[in-house]
Design goal:
heterodimer; A: mainly alpha; two-stranded antiparallel sheet; 2 strands; 73% helix; B: mainly alpha; Methane Monooxygenase Hydroxylase, Chain G, domain 1; flat
Chain lengths: 495, 120
């Protein structure tokens, strides 16, 4: 946010992204010329491409960590790098590596043979990394569109399934509508202030005494677009349908990865206007209360696992937005603590859901909650891990989810939002119910007569599952790592 | 006049001019041209199917694919015009970025070609 940087044009900043993108291009050529060639008899390349992309992501993580520029701008202040973008980029890259490792088995079993799948995912990661760094409304709009387009394609990837194409179409229509709102807000802002750069906007707004109606309208449209992308409550309707309809392998990618970078982007936009008016605070606060209510109450009626997880993610976004709306040092650090621990928990839960693929059934049907009675009988270890994961999501003490929720509520109480904090705590009690009901149906219900034969879990998948499961415990007893990361993010966001 | 609106005056003039020009062109084509309508000329032009038919019929997706691809490669010319006009002002950085953009467009073209999206 420092103006003197905007003259710099330091291309070293985006070397990791350049590397990621150029390797994606090379893999696209590889897929075109080898995968579609008659001479090699149309080989299936997905396994190879996913392995190469894991390597590419590891290399880009190394490039991110060894980047000589810690703070700086490039492209006339459109792209800047600081500690916040550093850590968020690393977490996006590592979580996507975990998703790649998990999804390897699924590809073999469900015959996703188009070589584009992982390339599209890598493009989405590229877009998310750039979104984290963008400090300019135009750049961020283009990059938001890039990652959303990748996710539309992923949602519609199983072309033969009517559910999947329906999900993709819904996602496309609603997502492009929200992008339209976003871009309309940007045009208003540009018409009024004459710039789209965050640091310049911050200076102009800081000098002015008051925000006028059109300024507020523009920023409101922008925030509505962002809340839509986050699936916060009044704008959440798309998310359960799309989670349910799209193939499981795509669901994991847009359930786990994109939230953190969109949240950081929301912080960057919010810090432009935060110190002038309480109007935007109330937008985030209302959205947070709505999402907690919807996430707690609507989830009680869900009978499908993926829909339940979608609504529970709406619930979690509600807690996050409570922290966003307070915008103090404490609350921002608690938000990043929450989202990082939520990513770990989400990876664990989705990897378990992945491991519960029926072994021999060809057409995948999403899990009903009733079917969980069979999990304990067929694979008791996975059932136990699943139960503990759900406890962490619900916020039961010896797990990391407890600290995350506690931090958020504490920062709300310290900022003086005691009534809101009490209400959200009460709603989180309601939300605990459905996690425990899931555990009940897994452990204490033997009503189901069906027996499931699950496909065996391969080693990479097991490694991801066990690491995330262990970190649920380790991060409770030693939350220092998450604390330090979130405080570093806050320091670069506020100062 | 408010300087805020003053900046937009050229755009407004261009808007008025384009409106007038389109009116003139349409008007002359109505008054001056010979009109000999028949059923084929008056029917709605649609890609490969009858627009007033049952909506549940299968239809050919090739037309739409070609149209979408046309939009992608046509929009590129819009960037090229703006780049060509401002080429004296952008330094070598701007030049190479445009070439990079062209290269990525080429990658997309090769992908489209190899996957057979433009085979008829």
């Amino acid at each position: 946010m420092i103006l003197s940087y905007t003259i710099e044009n330091n291309l070293k900043i985006i070397i990791p992204e350049i590397f990621l993108f150029s390797s994606v291009v090379v893999l696209l050529f590889f897929g075109c010329f080898i995968g579609l060639s008659l001479i090699y008899r149309y080989p299936l390349l997905n396994q190879i491409i996913s392995k190469v992309l894991i390597l590419v992501l590891i290399f880009s993580a190394i490039l991110i960590t060894n980047n000589p520029v810690v703070n700086g701008c490039c492209f006339n202040g459109c792209v800047n790098v600081d500690n916040a973008s550093f850590f968020v980029k690393l977490s996006v890259v590592f979580s996507s590596i975990c998703c790649f490792l998990i999804s390897n088995n699924y590809i073999k079993n469900y015959q996703i043979n188009n070589f584009e799948f992982f390339i599209v995912v890598a493009l989405a990661v590229f877009g998310l990394n750039l979104l984290v760094m963008s400090c300019d409304f135009l750049t961020s709009y283009i990059v938001l569109e890039l990652q959303s387009f990748c996710f539309y394609i992923l949602a519609a990837f199983k072309r033969s399934s009517a559910y999947s194409t329906e999900a993709g179409l819904k996602y496309f229509l609603l997502g492009s509508f929200s992008s339209t709102l976003f871009v309309f807000g940007v045009t208003l802002i540009y018409g009024i202030f004459g710039t789209v750069n965050f640091s310049l906007l911050h200076l102009i707004i800081f000098e002015n005494n008051n925000l006028f109606f059109l300024d507020k309208l523009g920023f409101t449209f922008i925030f509505v677009g962002i809340l839509f992308k986050l699936a916060a409550a009044p704008f959440h309707i798309w998310s359960p349908d799309i989670y349910e309809g799209s193939p499981l392998i795509s669901t994991i990618f847009f359930a786990v990865i994109p939230k953190i970078s969109i949240l950081l982007f929301a912080f960057r936009v919010f810090s432009v206007v935060s110190d002038k008016t309480n109007f935007f605070v109330s937008i985030f606060l209302i959205s947070s209360i709505f999402s907690v209510i919807v996430g707690s109450l609507v989830t009680l009626k869900q009978k499908r696992l993926k829909k339940l997880l979608a609504y529970s993610s709406v619930n979690h976004v509600g807690y996050l937005l409570l922290g966003v709306s307070l915008f103090s040092i404490e609350s921002i650090s608690s938000v990043f603590f929450y989202i990082l621990s939520y990513m770990v928990t989400g990876l664990c839960v989705w990897s378990i859901v992945f491991s519960l693929q029926p072994g021999r059934v060809s057409n995948y049907r999403a899990f009903n909650l009733v079917d969980f009675g069979a999990v304990l009988k067929t694979n008791p270890l996975i059932a136990n891990v699943f139960g503990i994961c759900l406890f962490s999501m619900a916020g039961v003490p010896p797990l990391v989810g407890f600290y995350a929720k506690l931090n958020i509520f504490q920062s709300a109480v310290n900022a003086g939002f005691i009534l809101v904090a009490c209400f959200i705590v009460l709603m989180s009690v309601v939300s605990t119910f459905y996690y425990i009901r899931l555990i009940k149906s897994a452990f204490f219900e033997n009503s189901t007569k069906k027996w499931f034969f699950f496909a065996s879990v391969n080693s990479a998948h097991a490694v991801v599952m066990s690491i995330t499961f262990l970190s649920l415990w380790v991060l409770f007893f030693n939350p220092l790592i998450l604390d330090l990361i979130s405080y570093k993010i806050v320091l670069s966001l506020i100062f | 006049m408010n300087p805020f609106f003053n900046n937009f005056l050229p755009i407004f003039i261009a808007f008025l001019f384009s409106f007038l020009l389109s009116l003139i062109i349409f008007g002359f084509s109505i008054f001056l041209a010979f009109q000999r309508p028949d059923t084929d000329k008056l029917s709605v032009y649609e890609c490969g199917f009858d627009p007033y038919d049952d909506a549940r019929n299968t239809f050919d997706i090739k037309f739409y694919l070609v149209a979408i691809l046309f939009v992608i490669f046509d929009l590129e010319t819009m960037f090229v015009f703006a780049w060509g006009v401002s080429l004296p002002d952008v330094n070598s950085n701007g030049f190479w970025i445009m070439l990079d953009f062209m290269f990525e467009l080429l990658v997309g073209y090769i992908y489209v070609w190899k996957t057979g999206a433009i085979d008829w």
